[in-house]
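Hi L., both proteins are below.
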Amino acid sequence: MRGGAWVAKLVAAVLGALVIGACTSLSSNDFASKETETLRHLVILYTNDEHGWMDPYQNTGGSAGMAYKWRQEEGWTEDGPFLVLSGGDMWTGHALSTVWEGESMTEVMNSVGYDVAAIGNHDFDFGLDALRARADQAEFPLLSANIRESVSGKTPDFAIPYFVTEINGINVGLIGLTTTETPVDTQPSHVADFEFLPYADVLPDIAASARGEGAELLLIVGHVCGAETRALAPVASELDIHFIGGGHCHQEINEVVDGVRLIESGFFNRGYTRIDLLYDTENNSIVEMETEFVPNKAGREDTEIAALIESWRERTDDSIWETIGYADSGIDRKSPEMAALLLDPWLDALSGADAALASPRYVQQDLFQGEITPSVIIGILSTTNELVEVDITGAQLIDTLEMHRPLMAGIVEGDNGYQFSDGGAIDLDAIYRVLVPEALYGGGNYYEFFKFDPEPTYTGIDWRQPPIDWIRSVGSTKQEPINEFLSD
């Protein structure tokens, strides 16, 4: 097994489970008071889709706020009956993590006390060398039971399928799952040598292996959306697995399907789910459980974690924190205004292109009200992408617009369909030059530009640079915010 510095600590993402009997609302002290030699208390703290958001934002406390809540309010200690679990997508997002390819966020997660993490699709964003470096750095295992090397059929060296440990007298096994959407929801070239197997296909053998290593309580921590965890619940129940922790779709979920507790805790460190349970080690069953989603509201911070985050800020190039503009209101990541902010500058930078397209899924977050810095644009466009010029027919362009509904620049949709922004019609037989991010060209998000133009032009331009340059050039302020320039 490959593992960074991770200590054989815990691996149970038990976040609730089927309670054999009624689900009772109890305080943590009530649970602890019920402990006996065979009835043991376990506490799980579960997050997912952290996306590097160690900093406070929008009345959210960041990693230092989360650590304060866990240590001072939840009573977390390293040797206590706790499991701290992540459902994956840990690093790509906030600039303070993105510019360091997740190194800073991994150190923060080590210090906060994470025990296990599932591998998410965006954990491939910086490439395999970076992922292996993060696996070596992490003091917790990175789990995925359904990734295989295409040639060998083996689990890749940066992952392990499951982990078994003893916590407070409970032998816990945790199985990791990675979304099968990964090939179309990261840079496709980064995962071209892997297969992402259906979850239900791998579970029986992996569960048997974990039990063979002594696991009594089996739990799944996965980077898997709610619809998929609901579909997987009957399979898990048959295998006597009564908890699935999820991720990927940025949802808050706390429900039971076929006796399986399903949990997902939102995104960007906005909160966590706490699960208290009592486990009967003699009968191998969960007998009582309480689950609660806890918002990570801004407030008091753990001083150790706050100092660690500040140390990474001090090591980061000052230029990304420079104020280059101002927004007097937020801009939704899927809106035409966001397309104008990001894609119109691409056309300005490459004047030979007729249009620019991007998937809204590639825009990681909204633009928040307030000062705009290069770090803000890095956070919005957090994956690494080069702009690519593709030559496609008008018919292929229309089909792409109708099928995918992308963000677009140079094109508008009117009562009579799509046309160019200058009023010109799109000729179905004509050839047009379109700008797209590299990942979209390669088949990301199910686009097929690579089929339309097998020999595109790679421009060498980072997709973030044109919007940063344009925002700086217009000189927006509180008195004349960027929003006014977008409406011109």
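That was the first. Here is the second:
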Amino acid sequence: MKAILISLIRNSKDRWKGLDRLEELEELAKSAEFEVFEKFIQIREKPDPAYLIGKGKVLELKKICDEYKIPVIIFDNDLTPIQKRNIEKATNKKIIDRTELIIEIFRRRARTSEAKIQVEIAYWQYQLTHLVGLSKEISLSRLAGVVGTRGPGEQLLENERRRIKERIRHLQRKLKDIERTKEIQKESRREFIKISLVGYTNVGKSTIMNLLTKSNVYVDDKLFATLDATTRSLKIEGIPYKVVLSDTVGFIRDLPPNLIASFKATLSVIEDADLILHVVDISHPMVNEHIETVEKILSDMGLGEKPKIMVFNKIDLIIDKNQIYRFKEKFSDSVFISAKLKIGIENLLEKIKEMILRQFLEFEITTENYELYSKIRKFALVEEEEMLDGKIRIKGIIHKRFYNYVNGNNS
């Protein structure tokens, strides 16, 4: 299906940024199986509250769509319910904003029942927001009329709103059941060192996952190819614990808050991680913006201070090799690789080992508590052990998370 894309920017200085945003929107549109006919930028200091880009520009788009038989207009911006309704009325075309487009891509990519439920919750929350907006508009338009009564339009909207809320509650209950099962699985991995891959969408996380764990996770060169969290065993020489590596949904600029909230259970693998691998496509022209986007999402999730390695992927595609040195200076804990050509993978494994060993503590405990002793034997690498006046003295090294757990803080 053909579509026209449009992005609103505030001033001409942002034109290049607007072009980059349109390139990303085109990738999103193609991921949703739209054929992009043309792309436009509208420069406007203040968004039109009724039409976003102004009624005149909307009518220009209608003329193009009518002439070339294009049924869809996709906006890079999010539209208010009033804006969306007005543009649809003026053009008689299907209008899709950025959030709706991303939700549609997620819907197409969802494979497991958990992902499908998460996406459907986000979809209905989006619909609910737009219903509330329309309901307010109808209510305001009736203020000049009889106060205290509801017209048929308001009643229909209220009924629909109730139906959607009930559907969301039903889906949230189903999701809770799945989360309880996942909590049991998570408990079984308490004894593991957990590493999580994060990054902007389509940076090569799944390819890196396959290389490091020698597995066969689904890989595709398109946005949001992976929605579900995938966990595999990772062998790290010199680490006295089992290590697991998890990959989950990629991030993107202006990722809808409803999707982040809906995917909270899936994203919990990042929250539980002892180490984050932030994968970056170093060859992308918007590389700095992509880093900022991911770091902001991590910060908003309260994970900005987690131990982290910056993994700069696709070094085989960069022309300016000085770019590597610039990022090396900016990020001390960084590795530069090409997952496609398998360059730098050993360096990455060494860096992972180094970062994990930084989290180990030396300890020496004397106790007569057998339960505590059993936990120490289970979770620590014991170097010395002896009996002293009926008590046990133990010395060794232990990962700090396990040390907290052994001492009664089940973190």
